[in-house]
Amino acid sequence: MAIRLFNGSPKLVEALKWIVGILDENGIPYRIGGGLAAHLYGSGRPVKDIDISLSGKYFPVIVPLVREHIVAGPKHYLNEKWDCETLSLSYHGQDIDLTDVDTLLMRDKDDSMWIKNKEIYGKWPDVRKEAEGVTVTLMHPRVLLEYKEHLSGEHQEFDREFLKGYVERHRI
Predict the structure, then answer these.
(1) Do 161 and 150 meet the contact criterion of CB atoms below 8 Å apart?
(2) Sign of CA dihedral 155, 156, 161, 163
(3) Which domain holds residue 125?
(4) For 22-70, what is each residue's pLDDT tens digit?
(5) Is the CB of residue 31 less than 8 Å from the CB of residue 53?
């Protein structure tokens, strides 16, 4: 079943089709996460950016294809919550963040240790969905929920509650 983006942002749809087209045309495996993935599962929370996890080994392929839209990177990004290689894009004003799943570390919710996100991703298979006329690969809802369990903020709580209900309703 095709999914329509609730906030109807043409900018988001255009950027999603653009970046997924590049990834698919070049055989680059990826998964969409963050608020957009929750949104594509049916959450009503508005989407700000497109978060995509992929292997950083593909950055040399991607960079020449997106050069005019690069805002930052590829570069190492480190703060109190994240430690990873990233590539940030802006496609006609729509933010797209590509993160290297091979290096992605996130502090746990207790701020006591680093979590290798790749280990979370491997627990459940990715999900393919059609959205706005393009087939996309999403983090499995259980993976997305586990990932978001370590993040703070009202929007993360909203996504967690939605995802818990989604997993329960779909018995997955």
Answers:
(1) no
(2) positive
(3) 2-166
(4) 999 999 999 999 999 999 999 988 889 999 999 999 999 999 999 999 9
(5) yes
